[in-house]
UniProtKB/TrEMBL annotation:
Extent of the signal sequence: 1-25
UniProt keyword annotation of Acyltransferase present: no
PANTHER family: CELL SURFACE GLYCOPROTEIN MUC18-RELATED (PTHR11973), FIBRONECTIN TYPE-III DOMAIN-CONTAINING PROTEIN (PTHR11973:SF24)
Provenance organism: Strongylocentrotus purpuratus (Purple sea urchin)
One Pfam entry name: I-set
Subcellular location: Membrane
One GO cellular component, as annotated: plasma membrane
Protein name: Ig-like domain-containing protein
SMART domains membership: IG
Membrane disposition: Single-pass type I membrane protein
Coiled coil: none
Lineage summary: Eukaryota, Metazoa, Echinodermata, Eleutherozoa, Echinozoa
Main location: membrane
Length: 306
């Protein structure tokens, strides 16, 4: 009996000693990671021009680590590779990887400055401590916030007054634009609650891969402002708007005219509202309040019980 207990005690000691050794050879982050598994982020969303670190976690000390770009871990070209005799940063391959990428000590991939060229799938392929090749991947998605201010109504570009207005005796073209965004953005005009049909739109791609977009509408003199709305803005959940008034030259821009309907000049071609064809989308209700304050101050001030 005594012999058996001693044997068991020894067994426990040996097991503890063994486990301690195993834990000791692992890096801190990979303590709970099973054999033959690589953990990476599924995707990373990065602003163009920012830096990013792609993590790669696995069990034990690897025989080699390869960061690759592409879909197939066997054929995708190496960006940076590392074996235990290499410098901690690993060896880069190719012009762009050598400019912006290197490995960290924990075998994560650091990209210094992300450009359009860095969009895509990154594979971390590891020759594990058991000598087995394992991998996982991270998709990099990019975005770029439009250049401020946006959106811009072209016809208001030089207008420093609080409410941009132009006068037109006939229908005129109004253009609204946003620049340097990625990947996409929606621009449209509202006239009252009516979403207007544009007469043209352009989308241009800049050298850095970001885009410029503009849309144009035909507008004519109206008491209702024309509002250009930017929605689905990269990096933002809000909408932005810019406002323009199109006045008839018949109304002299003197004080005291406010509240009177515009004299309906026959050649002004006033927009007819057709409520049945246009629906106010719920989104257009989210226009930031600041930009909607077109009517002169209607604020009520609470007096008393304060
Ligand atoms: C890849 O990484 C994800 C996220 O960390 C993880 O859920 C998944 O199990 C990994 N797949 C493999 C094959 O290691
Ligand atoms: C704004 O001003 C610039 C220079 O002062 C001029 O070239 C341009 O045509 C003006 N734009 C508009 C829309 O009035
Ligand atoms: C996009 O807009 C920016 C800012 O107005 C301008 O500098 C750039 O030239 C435009 N890009 C293209 C392709 O037209």
């Amino acid at each position: 009996m005594a012999l058996r207990i001693t044997q068991r005690t020894w067994l426990v000691i040996v097991i503890i000693a063994f486990m301690t050794t195993v834990v000791h050879t692992e890096s801190g982050v990979s303590g709970d990671i099973p054999d033959d598994v690589v953990y990476t982020d599924l995707h990373k969303t990065v602003r163009i021009g920012d830096s990013v670190v792609l993590t790669c976690q696995f069990r034990g000390t690897p025989l080699a680590v390869y960061w690759k770009k592409g879909d197939d871990p066997r054929t995708a070209p190496n960006l940076v590779s590392w074996i235990p005799t290499d410098d901690v940063t690993g060896l880069c391959e190719g012009e762009r990887p050598c400019q912006v990428m290197e490995m960290n000590e924990d075998r994560s991939l650091a990209i210094k400055e992300v450009s359009i060229a860095e969009e895509g799938r990154y594979i971390c392929r590891v020759s594990s401590y058991r000598g087995i090749l394992i991998h996982n991947f991270t998709d990099i998605r990019l975005f770029s916030i439009p250049e401020e201010p946006y959106p811009i109504i072209k016809q208001c570009a030089n207008d420093s007054s609080q409410i941009c207005s132009i006068s037109a005796s006939e229908s005129i073209t109004i253009t609204c634009l946003a620049t340097s965004f990625y990947p996409d953005l929606d621009l449209f005009f509202l006239h009252g609650s009516q979403k207007m049909k544009d007469i043209g739109s352009t989308e241009l791609t800049n050298h850095d891969g970001t885009k410029n977009k503009s849309i144009s509408i035909k507008a004519s003199a109206s008491n209702t402002p024309y509002i250009c709305v930017a929605s689905d803005i990269p990096g933002s959940k809000d909408q932005r708007a810019a406002t323009i008034m199109v006045n008839s030259p018949m109304i002299s821009p003197t004080r005291g005219n406010e509240g009177f309907p515009a004299p309906s000049s026959t050649n002004a071609g006033t927009m007819e509202k057709t409520p049945d064809t246009m629906e106010l989308t719920p989104r257009s209700m989210e226009i930031t309040p600041g930009t909607m304050e077109i009517t002169p101050g209607k604020r009520t001030t609470k007096i008393g019980n304060a």
